[in-house]
């Protein structure tokens, strides 16, 4: 057995208000006055002083506001890298991503592509990155994806939706300040939070499970239950706990994999642009057959928070469109193998997958 040797986020700060320390954390990392820090910030914060007034810009530092309306694309990463090269005198001192999974993934990908030749699409896959990325910092403002700890950055490219999985992908520094999540809209809180819950279920029910993944997964699952099913938590405690659940959920899949819901929601996302959080929810709602207990609890959480998921999003798709989705989904072999075991192809045939999609 050859065990994988994974990198981890080497520095992490946790606490309400810890975002105030950003300037102190970055100062020693400045390479020269011509090598700026570039902040990639979700444009939802453009006129939000709570975040922006606490980013202090010196020398040539810049904030680039980016919309998270759509999930990151390889072409978008290439454009950002091009813009940054043109606007800076020297290679930047660092890239700081502030936002949800979308901004965190963009920051990771941009940091990689500033030191690696070619286009982002060339690096979608496993261990294709040759040079270390520039220093990059992740600051989540919504909890659930685990993108703050993961070794991947999920990108939609011209012919696939696949991450850049590499030892250079994880952040050099993460700031976990749960207070930053205080204005997340309720439905989005649920969808992104459920991404974490689904990570736990898929990891804990998977065939790749081991004690490393199990211990993180169980911790994250307990926190999710407290947050989404309990009645005792204050708003602050709930924000704190969900942020830690996201972290642990992400740690759990470092050494295992996600499963059926993720494999299917990648198909939805590729064809219809359905976003990760809500897409996972739409899919998971129909997966009793694979995750009976997990889906039961999911439905209880949905009920409790009065969440109404879209229905019939695949009802009017042509066979050709369904086939595109099915191909994208079935290409994610490790996810299916984790979910259903070595003989997964016998269980999840294209026909079976089509039936499932048609229910959604
Ligand atoms: P997101 O980043 O797309 O944000 C969702 C919405 O919430 C956006 O409208 C955003 O503007 C808003 N928002 C974020 N923080 C806010 C705040 N504090 N106040 C008000 N509004 C706020 O959503 P997400 O669910 O965090 O991320 C999804 C993305 O993460 C997908 O692209 C997915 O592929 C990726 N992802 C990556 C990994 C990984 O390991 N790299 C894992 C899971 C998901
Ligand atoms: Zn996910």
TrEMBL record:
Keyword Oxidoreductase: yes
Chain ranges of the Fe-containing alcohol dehydrogenase-like C-terminal domain: 191-293
Keywords: Oxidoreductase
Location of the Alcohol dehydrogenase iron-type/glycerol dehydrogenase GldA domain: 11-178
Record's keyword annotation contains Oxidoreductase: yes
Matches recorded under InterPro entries: ADH_Fe/GldA, ADH_Fe_C, Alcohol_dehydrogenase_Fe
Pfam families noted in UniProt: ADH_Fe_C, Fe-ADH
PANTHER family membership: 3-DEOXY-ALPHA-D-MANNO-OCTULOSONATE 8-OXIDASE, ALCOHOL DEHYDROGENASE
Protein name, as recorded: Iron-containing alcohol dehydrogenase family protein
């Amino acid at each position: 057995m050859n065990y994988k040797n994974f990198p981890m986020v080497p520095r992490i700060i946790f606490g309400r208000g810890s975002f105030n320390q950003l300037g102190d954390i970055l100062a020693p990392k400045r390479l020269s006055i011509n090598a700026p820090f570039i902040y990639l910030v979700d444009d939802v914060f453009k006129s939000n002083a709570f975040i922006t007034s606490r980013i202090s810009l010196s020398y040539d530092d810049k904030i680039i506001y980016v919309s998270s309306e759509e999930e990151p694309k390889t072409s978008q990463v290439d454009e950002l890298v091009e813009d940054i090269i043109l606007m800076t005198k020297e290679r930047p001192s660092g890239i700081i991503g502030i936002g949800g999974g979308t901004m965190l993934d963009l920051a990771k990908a941009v940091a990689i592509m500033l030191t690696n030749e070619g286009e982002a699409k060339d690096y979608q896959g496993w261990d294709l990155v040759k040079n270390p990325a520039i220093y990059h910092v992740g600051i989540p403002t919504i909890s659930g994806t685990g993108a703050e700890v993961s070794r991947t950055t999920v990108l939609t490219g011209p012919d696939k939706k696949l991450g850049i999985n590499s030892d250079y992908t994880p952040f050099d520094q993460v700031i976990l300040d749960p207070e930053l999540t205080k204005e997340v809209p309720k439905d989005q809180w649920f969808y992104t939070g459920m991404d974490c819950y689904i990570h736990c279920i898929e990891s804990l029910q998977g065939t790749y499970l081991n004690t490393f993944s199990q211990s993180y997964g169980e911790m994250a699952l307990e926190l999710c239950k407290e947050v989404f099913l309990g009645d005792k938590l204050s708003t602050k405690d709930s924000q704190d706990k969900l942020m830690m659940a996201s972290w642990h959920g992400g740690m759990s899949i470092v050494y295992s994999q996600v499963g059926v819901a993720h494999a299917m929601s990648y198909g939805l996302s590729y064809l219809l642009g359905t976003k990760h959080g809500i897409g996972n929810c739409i899919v998971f709602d129909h997966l009793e057959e694979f995750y009976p207990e997990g889906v039961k609890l999911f439905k209880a959480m949905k009920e409790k928070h009065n969440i109404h998921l879209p229905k019939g999003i695949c009802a009017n798709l042509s066979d050709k469109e369904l086939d595109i989705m099915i191909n994208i989904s079935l290409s994610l072999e490790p996810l299916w193998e984790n979910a259903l075991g070595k003989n997964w192809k016998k269980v999840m045939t294209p026909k079976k997958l089509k039936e499932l999609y048609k229910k959604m």
